[in-house]
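To: structure subgroup
Subject: Chain for Friday's discussion

All,

I'm putting the inputs and outputs inline so they're searchable in the archive.
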Amino acid sequence: MKKAGGHRNFGYGKQMTWAGKQALRDQYGNGHYGTVTGHAERWRRFVTWCRDERDIRDARLIDKEVVQDYGKSLEDKVDAGMSPAYAQNLLSSVNVVMQAMRSDRQIRVAPVEFVGQRSRIRTDPPAGLDQKVVCQCADQLRQNGHERVAATVEVARALGLRLKEASLLNAGVALGQVKKHGAVNITAGTKGGRGHRVDRWVPVSGRAIGYLMRAAKAQGQGRNLIPSNLTWRQWYSHVHHVWAGVRDDYGLKKIHDLRAAYACERYKQLTGSAAPVIAGRLCVDRGTDRAARQTIAQELGHARIEVVATYIGGAR
């Protein structure tokens, strides 16, 4: 039974996974074993995400923004092949458990808004194709006193990295890899720990070397671009808040779009032709197209080349 609301996990126990299951049992009572078990298993995945991505171990710290961020992470998984229906179920279970714990619906989100049925093929060119514009935006961030955010944005665009990967990249080590190999091996912040199991070498151009040098200067004696006094969750929120304040002035959108811009740029380098999403059609033979997609998939850290269509468009 629920104890005082001021206690950890609203009084349902010290561990979030256990507490969620107890809240479900409290709400459904006996006779709903399958329902409780299903929600509890999906809740467990959310608890793991909270721990790994936001360092949250107490359900009292979960607000609507956290649940929305989880929805965005599921959106990425749908792009990578997860069933939209299953992703909606995952988010629905978070709604159910949090309602059971809180006894209200204040942080409920609509799953379909994040992981509804939609095309996985990009049809509009991504913002940030021109690296000079991204650099200008980064310069503005520096002028505003956000040197680490500026470096994170530049590295994300230059290497096609997710925000967490760019934030956790040790620029000093990366520069050493570039000197030796002409490329950087992305291992920190990768999804599912993939970077620790599979090499992911990303080639580095002259301009990208300059970005890495600025990033190394910004990180100073640290191991990455996240300030030592901030958690990943705090840094994540800070970056998005600061980015939102300048991006519109430069025609830019989500930071994740910079990853798609990188993919389109690499496609042009590998094939000599514009990406389908830019050209409006496939301009090379299918063999050349597939080889380019395989290379881009590896550099972006995806296991399947089909996912590349979400960045550069379809192969028709």
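Points worth raising on Friday:
Residues 76 and 82 are 9 Å apart (CA to CA).
Residues 33-54 form the longest helix (22 residues).

D.
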